[in-house]
């Protein structure tokens, strides 16, 4: 069933969009990632312009993350105080990111920036996650292998001022690192149309020292407000949010997030991470090849704005 998307100005299959939304929703529930880092490139692959894909995907992440958070709140695995601190940084970052996005859009370079950002971040995150997951699987198979030494979080994070107690996470740390992490993720949300979970989750574990059991729920909680704010800014300044596209992705995403939360509790964490890393590297490879290979049409005719 073909449907015309007015803002994207293309016709696509409605069931394919529902399926994409559902698949990314499942990932959201399983890993605590908004799923935008896979959805935005997938939308670009099926012909959605990058600027529209970024702005609309931020909208879809809000719904799938909200659905996932409800499941985690029932399990009491959300550190709301930490989530609020991360959101403050995220809102600042989202504002800065949209300003940068608009500036590059005026120069006509925004599509290249989006693609390069994806290749860079997906390449790094996918590789690191893959190496770490393979090590974890090897250790699980050979119990006599020495586990990696546990590093106590007595790092530079502990020496900073403005300390605050985060009871759910069992932490007493400065609010500066969470705010900085939030700012960085907010910028990514605006430029790449991602919730930033693929950066946020490792940062919460390794930099902030949060227990893994509260990381997924807190990451999803933080994502909701930041991506909601990003969507609002894109809709009002760029007019690149396609509501027809967003609704189809939303429906699939909300259903998928509930399924993903159930699957995530049944599978082993190492196996899940290897699967996610493999998908990340596949998408990264496809984007990189699209950048490097000569396109079928060397020239395309378009009407530049203002002429």
TrEMBL record:
Signal recorded as keyword: no
Membrane spanning stretches: 12-39, 83-104, 110-131, 175-208, 214-233, 240-260
Pfam families referenced in this protein's UniProt entry, alphabetically: TauE
GO CC, any one term: plasma membrane
Bilayer topology term: Multi-pass membrane protein
Keywords associated with the record: Cell membrane, Membrane, Transmembrane, Transmembrane helix
Ligase keyword on record: no
Source superkingdom: Bacteria
UniProt cross-references to InterPro entries, sorted A to Z: TM_pro_TauE-like, TSUP/Inactive_protease-like
Cellular location(s): Cell membrane; Membrane
PANTHER family: MEMBRANE TRANSPORTER PROTEIN MJ0441-RELATED, MEMBRANE TRANSPORTER PROTEIN YTNM-RELATED
Protein family membership: Belongs to the 4-toluene sulfonate uptake permease (TSUP) (TC 2.A.102) family.
Protein's recorded name: Probable membrane transporter protein
């Amino acid at each position: 069933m073909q449907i015309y998307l007015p803002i994207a100005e293309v016709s696509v299959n409605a069931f394919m969009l529902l399926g994409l939304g559902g698949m990314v929703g499942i990932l959201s529930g399983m890993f605590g990632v908004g799923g935008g880092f896979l959805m935005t490139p997938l939308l670009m692959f099926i012909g959605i312009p990058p600027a529209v894909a970024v702005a609309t995907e931020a909208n879809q992440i809000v719904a799938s993350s909200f659905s996932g958070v409800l499941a985690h709140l029932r399990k009491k695995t959300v550190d709301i105080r930490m989530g609020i601190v991360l959101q403050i940084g995220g809102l600042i970052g989202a504002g800065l990111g949209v300003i940068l996005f608009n500036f590059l859009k005026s120069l006509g370079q925004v599509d290249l920036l989006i693609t390069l950002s994806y290749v860079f971040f997906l390449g790094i995150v996918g590789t690191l996650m893959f190496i770490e997951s393979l090590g974890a699987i090897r250790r699980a198979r050979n119990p006599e292998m020495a586990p990696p030494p546990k590093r106590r979080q007595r790092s530079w994070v502990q020496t900073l001022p403005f300390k605050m107690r985060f009871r759910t996470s069992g932490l007493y740390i400065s609010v500066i690192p969470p705010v900085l992490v939030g700012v960085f993720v907010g910028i990514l949300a605006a430029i790449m149309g991602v919730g930033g979970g693929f950066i946020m989750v490792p940062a919460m574990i390794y930099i902030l020292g949060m227990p893994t059991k509260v990381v997924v729920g807190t990451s999803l909680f933080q994502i909701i407000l930041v991506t909601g704010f990003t969507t609002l800014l894109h809709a009002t300044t760029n007019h690149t949010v396609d509501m027809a596209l967003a609704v189809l992705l939303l429906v699939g995403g909300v259903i998928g997030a509930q399924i993903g939360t159930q699957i995530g509790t049944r599978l082993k964490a190492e196996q899940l991470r290897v699967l996610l890393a493999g998908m990340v590297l596949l998408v990264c490879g496809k984007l990189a090849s699209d950048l490097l290979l000569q396109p079928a049409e060397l020239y395309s005719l378009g009407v530049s704005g203002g002429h």
